[in-house]
Design a protein that fits this description.
The complex is a heterotrimer of chains A (about 290), B (about 375) and C (about 450). With about 290 residues, chain A is of the alpha/beta class. Chain A has one domain: Rossmann fold (3-Layer(aba) Sandwich), CATH 3.40.50.300. In chain A, about 35% of the residues lie in helices and about 25% in strands. Chain A is built from eleven helices and ten strands. In chain A, the strands form two sheets. Chain A has a six-stranded mixed beta sheet, sandwiched between helices. In chain A, strands 2-1-4-5 form a four-stranded antiparallel beta sheet, with helices on one face. In chain A, β4 and β5 form a beta hairpin. Chain B has about 375 residues and is mainly alpha-helical. Chain B has a domain of about 230 residues: MetI-like fold (Orthogonal Bundle), CATH 1.10.3720.10. Chain B has twelve helices and two strands, in the order ααββαααααααααα. In chain B, β1 and β2 form a beta hairpin. In chain B, α9 runs antiparallel to α12. The radius of gyration of chain B is 29 Å and the shape is flat. Chain C has three domains: about 40 residues; about 160 residues, no CATH class; about 230 residues, MetI-like fold, CATH 1.10.3720.10. Classes of the chains: A alpha/beta (about 290), B mainly alpha (about 375), C mainly alpha (about 450). Chains B and C meet through α1, α3, α4, α5 and α7 of B and α1, α9, α10, α11 and α12 of C.
Chain lengths: ~290, ~375, ~450
């Protein structure tokens, strides 16, 4: 599969000739050469569940301060790849990684990496809103408190700032002491974003953040991503191709563990290089 | 990244650690997890200690007196000089009340578990479960008090009529059900519907009359029974069955619930009634779990002390005839509880060690049945998971 | 088989199931109702003047003036009885020895019954035991004593195939023509005036110490002992159990060592309670000598290892029930594993853990067998907190057994036994009920 994909892409890029810009440059396949500095870069990076290779030798740069969407059918490894970036996969006992995955020039899976500090810098928002069963204020303040902020005034400032960034402040400012589980699903998800922003991460990982939400709440989250664009490096895994095309600057397409195509969003959706990509985005399979 | 990134100055929130910090972190992790492991191993250590300390005090008895007397003699005269330590009658008593309580608790418990899992609507089930938990929560000494102070006099004074009414109320419906089923089966050969109907009615009436006589005769015989002492094996068996019921019901119910809905639906789709579905499909699938439940329930009965101590009569002999549940008996647990008071003072005597020998016996029985039931549960889980 | 028969079978099957559930509920009622009604009688009963005297003298309760007035009132009626006794004594002296001898034994019974009713009679020596210093404190016992006074009990052995039957003849027959004959109708008519029964709420039953091994007084020593034992057991078992549960759910790897530990846990859960008692005696007292002989601490330790498996299991279940998303959220914010456990998982699991703890507390309070050899004594004063390391204690569970099976006057203090059983069952069931309610609230909360 790996080899055939490479061959196929070599052919397609050859066939395309000197069209537009050089997106695919074998042997540094799927590495984007233009448009920013790499923030996270994978090199021959694989993730295994036991013997099963869920993500296969991915080599790609994720660019700083851009929104990158990751799409692909269920079980293609897109979530696994995302969770590898802040090492949430460590929770799964049989899971391990090979190759290198660099963040700010340091190896995420290196021997001296402190995954706790790493996760502080790489925040994550999950598929289902998962606020703690605590007051809204304590939810937001949880991260800062963990990292040693004790002063009440500072905490209040951080909470307000985070909630404002997450466009939730006006809705909840009068009930910060209420249990967060009393919020609506969409509000809960924005609360989770705010909670993540409160620890001031460099990267925001969004793992299908709208799949459990209704269209209205989804729109709000998308607006929020729009607001945050440019301030954070954002990676969003999504099932929804329209969403990917709406919010992202770049898009990665995974299929059966392979990174099939990685290109500026507009290009990937209008002019996919790969047959599989085209089949997927035109809805021949999902 | 084998070596430390020495070139990058250590920022406070850097996610790459110095080797020093890595080492400290590892040590902390090792110590922390080690502490947790020690605490978690505490239970295993306690189990080993229990076996060891009970065995250490039990072995001197067998060294002094050998195995023969303990397991084969019915003479229990520990206070005599020299004493006699035959525990056969006591073991028999333990066995008797265990079997007695199982005979009551197992059918009742399984029926109740089936009812809970398959018959009752969810709303009722919500209230039935706490009732069962309450039954389990009542302390054994309270049951013992009930058995001794309330139930035993009742049994002694109104034993005959009580037995008779119990017989009629419980056996009556089953006997008539059997009449209906048997007459159906007997007449199933005949062809024409009209003759069949007539034959069937006659057969039903004939069997019904026979059954009535049978019920009446047995009932009358029971009515005439005089119970000399209310503190007897029947009393204890009944109370122990109450105590075993909650375990049997809740574990069986879990096991019945573990049998998926697909199996039930498959059976219903073939035109089976609910009873047929449960008896022919669900019960076989859940059988090993139910067996484990029964073992656990019975274990409660064997290990129970207070009820048997208070209400068994504590007389060390094998009843005459051997199945006479209206006779007083004595059990292992009650003997340990009752004789320790006198034996305690003379640590080192056979009288003291024989009680530990009984404790060891109980411990081994409980250990083995626990292992067996655990195996059974694991196996069922595997079978249901299709491994 | 006929479809009709099959349907009948199906219905009967359902009926059997429902009947079995109803039978269990009925069994619960049959056990609990008599215990409740009997137990309430220990607190709410018709108390006689003797009860008030005793309360005033021994515990300092009650209004002295009212009591003085009532004592005078009763003494007015009682003095006639004592006068009759005096006259009869004189009459006895004047009788032929043979004649008086025949009367003497029945007269002795009369005096005994009267002493039982009124306390020591004039002329009797001052009794040492508290039980003889007062008359009957409860009206129904006074009525029984009156019956003993009025009738002679005889046994009918005429039918050898049947058990002997008891029957009664009036005692007046013995004393026809003597000066005592008037006593019997007088007693029957004036018992109320001599005892002055009043509806009594005796809350002191719970808070008073016992007098003369539970002939009078309350059960505070037992309640306190049960409390010490159960809470002591929790103090050991709860932290250990929760820590072990954290290990099993968050740290244990899936290997043979872990499965051995789990197996040990279920083995411990299945050990008969009396064997725990043996172990407690052999290990805590005879081997490591936590105390010279029986003590609260030895009992608590024994109970602690008994309830440990329950606590571990309940805590494990509660921790596993915490949504995994909480853990993920906390970790993704840069929390360490241990901090996540302490700040997120444990708080969320706490209600469930506490539920398990409460149920175990109830079990520790109700168990008898483990404390027989390690902590319980039949008669004992309330102990102070400082004594838990050295002295044994009375406890509800053990004393129920002891009073019902081994007490010399077991039949006369049934109300105390019922009261104790009620106290124990109430404690245990209230604990369980609160656990059930707590659990219902949790499941509601989890549903949102």
């Amino acid at each position: 599969m790996q080899m055939t994909a490479v061959e196929k892409e070599a052919q397609t890029s050859a066939a395309a000739g000197s069209s537009n810009r050089e997106i695919f440059l074998p042997p540094e396949r799927q590495r984007i050469k233009d448009g920013g500095t790499p923030h996270v870069s994978a090199k021959n990076f694989s993730i295994f569940y036991g013997n099963f290779e869920a993500v296969k030798k991915v080599t790609a740069d994720i660019l700083s301060k851009y929104v990158t969407a990751i799409i692909g059918p269920s079980g293609c490894g897109k979530s696994t790849f995302l969770r590898a970036i802040n090492r949430m996969n460590d929770l799964i006992p049989s899971c391990y990684a090979t190759g290198t995955l660099m963040f700010d020039g340091e190896d995420i899976y290196g021997r001296y990496t402190d995954e706790v500090q790493l996760r502080k810098k790489i925040g994550m928002v999950f598929q289902k809103p998962n606020p703690f069963p605590k007051p809204i204020f304590d939810n937001i303040a949880y991260g800062p408190r963990l990292h040693g902020v004790k002063d009440k005034k500072t905490l209040e400032e951080i909470v307000e700032k985070s909630l404002r960034k997450a466009a939730l402040w006006d809705e909840v400012k009068d009930r910060l002491d209420r249990n967060a589980l009393g919020l609506s699903g969409g509000q809960q998800q924005r609360l989770c974003v705010a909670r993540t922003l409160a620890v001031e991460p460099d990267i925001l990982l969004l793992d299908e953040p709208t799949s459990a939400l209704d269209p209205k709440a989804t729109a709000k989250i998308e607006d929020l991503i729009e607001e945050l664009r440019g301030s954070y490096t954002i990676l969003i895994v999504t099932h929804n191709m329209q969403q990917a095309s709406r919010v992202s600057d770049y898009t990665m397409f995974y299929y059966e563990g392979d990174l099939i195509e990685y290109a500026p969003t507009k290009q990937l959706f209008t002019n996919p290089r790969d047959q599989v990509t085209e089949d997927y985005i035109t809805g021949r399979f999902s | 990244m084998a070596e430390a990134p020495l070139n990058s100055p250590q920022k406070p929130d850097a996610f790459v650690m110095t080797p020093e910090r890595l080492r400290r972190q590892r040590i902390a992790k090792f110590l922390g997890e080690g502490f947790l492991l020690v605490v978690a191993s505490f239970v295993a250590i306690v189990v080993l200690f229990i076996f060891y300390f009970v065995a250490v005090d039990a072995i001197p008895f067998f060294q002094q007196r050998g195995f023969g007397e303990f397991f084969t003699s019915t003479g229990w005269y520990p206070a005599d000089e020299p004493g006699e330590f035959g525990a056969l009658a006591i073991m028999y008593g333990s066995g008797m009340v265990t079997i007695g309580s199982a005979l009551i608790a197992v059918p009742l418990g399984i029926a109740a578990a089936i009812c809970l899992s398959d018959v009752l609507p969810f709303a009722v089930r919500q209230y039935a479960k706490p009732v069962i938990e309450m039954l389990a929560a009542i302390p054994s000494v309270a049951y013992g008090f009930f058995a001794l102070v309330i139930f035993a006099p009742l049994l002694q004074n109104y034993g005959g009529p009580l037995l008779m009414w119990t017989w009629w109320l419980i056996a009556g419906p089953f006997v008539f059900l059997a009449v209906i089923v048997v007459s159906d089966l007997v007449t199933s050969g005949s062809q024409s519907t009209d003759t069949r109907k007539t034959i069937r009615w006659t057969v039903t009436v004939v069997f019904g009359v026979i059954a009535l006589f049978f019920l009446y005769y047995v009932g009358r015989t029971l009515n005439e029974i005089q119970i000399l002492s209310g503190t007897n094996a029947l009393n204890v068996s009944l109370i122990l069955s109450f105590m075993a019921l909650p375990t049997i019901v809740s574990v069986s119910e879990d096991s019945l619930q573990a049998v998926g809905r697909e199996l039930r639906e498959g059976s219903y789709a073939l035109g089976a009634t609910r009873a047929e579905t449960i008896v022919k499909t669900v019960l076989p699938a859940a059988s090993s779990g139910i067996l484990a439940a029964v073992i656990l329930g019975i274990m409660r009965a064997i290990g129970e002390t207070m009820v048997v101590w208070m209400a068994s009569g504590n007389s060390s002999h094998i009843p005459e005839p051997w199945f006479n549940y209206l006779d007083s008996i004595r059990t292992l647990t009650a003997t340990i509880a009752g004789d320790m008071g006198e034996a305690d003072q003379v640590t080192g005597s056979a009288r003291y060690h024989v009680l530990f020998a009984m404790g060891l016996l109980l411990l081994i029985i409980s250990f083995v049945s626990n292992l067996v039931s655990e195996r059974i549960v694991v196996r069922q889980r595997k079978v249901l998971a299709g491994e | 088989m006929d479809l009709g028969t099959r349907k009948i079978l199906d219905r009967s099957f359902t009926a059997v199931g429902i009947t079995s559930i109803l039978l269990m509920a009925a069994a619960l009622l049959v056990v609990i109702v008599p215990i409740f009604s009997g137990g309430i009688g220990a607190i709410f009963f018709k108390g006689t003047i003797e009860h008030r005297k005793l309360q005033y003298n021994e515990f300092g309760n009650g209004d002295k003036e009212v009591m003085q007035r009532q004592i005078e009132e009763t003494n007015a009626y009682r003095s006639r009885v004592f006068a009759m006794l005096g006259e009869f004594d004189a009459e006895l002296e004047s009788m032929e020895p043979a004649e008086s001898k025949a009367l003497r034994s029945s007269y002795k019974k009369v005096r005994e019954a009267l002493a039982h009713l009124f306390g020591p009679l004039p002329g009797d020596p001052e009794p040492i035991l508290t039980r003889y210093q007062y008359g009957t404190t409860r009206w129904e016992q006074a009525e029984e004593a009156l019956h003993d006074l009025m009738y002679v009990s005889k046994w009918d052995y005429s039918d050898p195939t049947q058990m002997a039957k008891q029957y009664f003849v009036p005692r007046t027959d013995d004393f026809k023509g003597t000066k005592l004959a008037a006593l019997f109708p007088y007693m029957e008519e004036n018992l109320v005036n001599m005892m002055l029964p009043e509806q009594t709420f005796y809350w002191g039953f719970i808070t008073d110490r016992s007098l003369d091994s539970h002939i009078f007084g309350g059960i505070w020593a037992e309640i306190q002992g049960t409390f010490f034992l159960a809470v002591g057991a929790m103090l050991f078992a709860f932290p250990l159990g929760v820590t072990a549960a954290i290990y099993f759910t968050e740290y244990a790897k899936d290997n043979i060592f872990t499965s051995i530990l789990r197996s040990a846990n279920s083995t411990l859960a299945g050990v008969p309670s009396i064997v725990f008692g043996l172990f407690g005696l052999a290990f805590f007292i005879n081997t490591i000598k936590v105390s010279e002989s029986k003590s609260v601490i030895a009992g608590s330790l024994t109970l602690a290892i008994m309830i440990l498996p329950t606590i571990i299991r309940a805590a494990e279940e509660a921790i596993l029930a915490v949504p995994k998303t909480y853990k993920e959220a906390s970790l993704s914010l840069g929390s360490t594993k241990w901090r996540t456990i302490v700040t997120v998982i444990l708080p969320a699991a706490l209600p469930g853990i506490i539920t398990g703890g409460i149920i175990s507390l109830g079990r520790a309070a109700g168990e008898t067998a483990p404390i027989i050899f390690t902590a319980a004594v039949s008669v004992g004063a309330t102990i102070g907190l400082a004594d838990v390391f050295s002295s044994p204690t009375p406890a509800l569970s053990w004393n129920i057994y002891n009073l019902a099976s081994e007490h010399e006057a077991a039949n006369e203090i049934r109300h105390v036994q019922y009261g104790m059983v009620l106290a124990l069952i109430s404690i245990v069931l209230l604990l369980n009920l609160s656990a059930i309610l707590l659990r219902a609230r949790i499941s509601k909360k989890l549903k949102g």
